Amino acid sequence: LEEDSTFWQDLYVAILFHDAGKFVLNFQRENRKKANKGKPDWDLYIRHEFISCVLLLDRYTELCDERPYAYLAVAAHHKPLGQNLWATSELKQVEYKDKDLRIIEGWLASRLKAMGVTWSFEGRAARRLTKAKTGGTLKNLRDYALKQTVFNTVSSDMLDYFSQDPVRRRLRYARFMGLLHAADWGGSGHNLPAAPLVFDEQYLLAYMRRKIGASFERWRVFQADSKIKGNVLAIAPTGSGKTEASLLWATQRTPGTRIIYCLPTKVTSNAIYRRIVDMVAPDKENSEHVAVVHSGAKNYRQLVEEDFDEMGYLSDKSFGRDVTVCTIDQLLTVGFNLGHWQMRTLYLTKASVIIDEIHLYQPFTLGLIVQTMRYLQEYCGVRFYVMTATLPSQLRSLLEQNLLDVEIIADHEKPRQTAKLLAVHRNLAGRPTIIRTDQN
Questions:
Q1: pLDDT averaged over the chain?
Q2: How far is the C-alpha of 389 from the C-alpha of 236, rounded, in Å?
Q3: DSSP code of 42?
Q4: Bridge partners (DSSP) listed for residue 325
Q5: Confidence of residue 98 (pLDDT cuts 50, 70, 90)
Q6: Of all helices (H) and strands (E), which one includes residue 370?
Q7: DSSP one-letter string for 236-289
Q8: What is the pTM of this model?
Q9: Higher model confidence: residue 290 or residue 70?
């Protein structure tokens, strides 16, 4: 990510503080509660994010108006930020053990020291926390916190900050929150990030030789022409090898970036998922590098995979794997603030996105796809391989206008079909076009 040093410094602080509030007994006792079907008693419960932010405000209040990402991320790393997040009884008292507070204070101070920051918990937040425990109520803390910009989600300061450059600051927040979630989930599961998948042409060649036979020697011309780094609009009939062509294109990605394969239906998504798993892990029923994501994907994978990781599926839904096969709606959610859209935005940075059967979508959905492509190209450096078996002229024109420096690649086996395709594309207004006939 091309972010400045303050981004990484603030992220480090957010990671340190985001769970610091768990030391309060209001959270610990109710979080472990067995009665009442494990649900908290809301008369006692206090969300740990609230206490974490109170601790954070003691050290970083002055940064709130300048760059509020750490505050926002800590406050909203479990629930969307809003007044309802703190809608609990104001009369309850904060409960904690003094030794637990000293332990968390010492731990935070030692980690902040790595940044060259000397800090002791002696500020106003400490006094407010002590008062809320010994004689006051939660209202004391809430009144203190709500005066800070981060908690007052309708404050003019916060709105002004994000209105100055809304798209880029929203993107920065998404990446910030996405990295916090990645660190949080990895730490909670004691999982180090897996080495990135080296998805190259050799995987595809080995797969083709297993399926077709050792006689397979080379790619068809249409497929070989797809080995480029830019955007591609591919037109080829069903059964011509578009899937392999798109994956061959995906091998040209920036190392370590994601491959997202989008399809119209759950059935086709499942089929492509199985095919890609067979490419990268032919001796296994699944792969740690490949996921399928759609409304029924969890149930599907539970049926076909004996060692399905239910906790890991949370990361799968966020485009956390090297290759994600999904229905198109999963891609579109990055623009609607739905689900873990922040992590999806993070993992879409410089990703290679394949969109199959583009001609099947209704105008409304197609409009969302086009706008999403424009946004991801401009702000996230995403490249696209859009493919179809048929391409109406109006759709072709729309895609040409919205895919930057797109190369159109068409392929038909029969000369008559190729001639017809040439006629359709003879007025491409200077767009680079490759038309190949390959009957071998």
A1: 81
A2: 5
A3: T
A4: 261, 292
A5: confident
A6: helix 363-380
A7: --TTS-HHHHHHHHHTTSPTT--EEEEESSHHHHHHHHHHHHHHH-TTSSS-TT
A8: 0.85
A9: 290
